[in-house]
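Before the break, one more example. Copy the sequence into your notebook; we will annotate it together after we see the structure.
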Amino acid sequence: MQGNPFNNGSTDNQMRIRIYVELFLYQIDSSIKDYSYLLACHLRYQDSNSSFEGETEMKILIVDDSQDLAFTLQMMLEAEGFEVMSANDGREGYLAYLDFKPDLVITDIQMPGETGLELVGQIRLLNPMVRTIYMSGNLGSFLSPLEEERKTHPVSLLAKPFSRGQLLSTVSAMAA
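Here is what the structure looks like once it is written out:
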């Protein structure tokens, strides 16, 4: 009899199982902050050899007024080997861009103060071809200006809510 493959006496393996169960339970009913914490724990225990299609040098700036979402996205992307910085609004995002000089900017469109479109407009004065992924729960309101921008700049869109797979697929397409 082989026994339970998950119970091999490994504390690390038992921790992984506990995290998977907690992630499942929190996906059902929890605040994003608790889920973000558990997701970060899960990613910490992922195999260290998993890399995102060999992409380890790309620098990504995330700008979103939801600190919980920005944190979650940052943890997901860092687990894939990307260097990531986050900011909580357009002004902070612009300053972070100047300091961090990312290859890709992932920004929410609707934020208090400066919108994601305004932020990227300022960044494009310095770097007209900065790769950008816009996120919004209401992309329909912005389709006209986004379609115009897509004609001349490397732009992609993510409709909130989106999955980890959709995020990574969009980032991969922008990295190519």
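The first strand starts at residue 59 and ends at 63. Residues 11-44 form one domain. Try to locate both features in your own notes.
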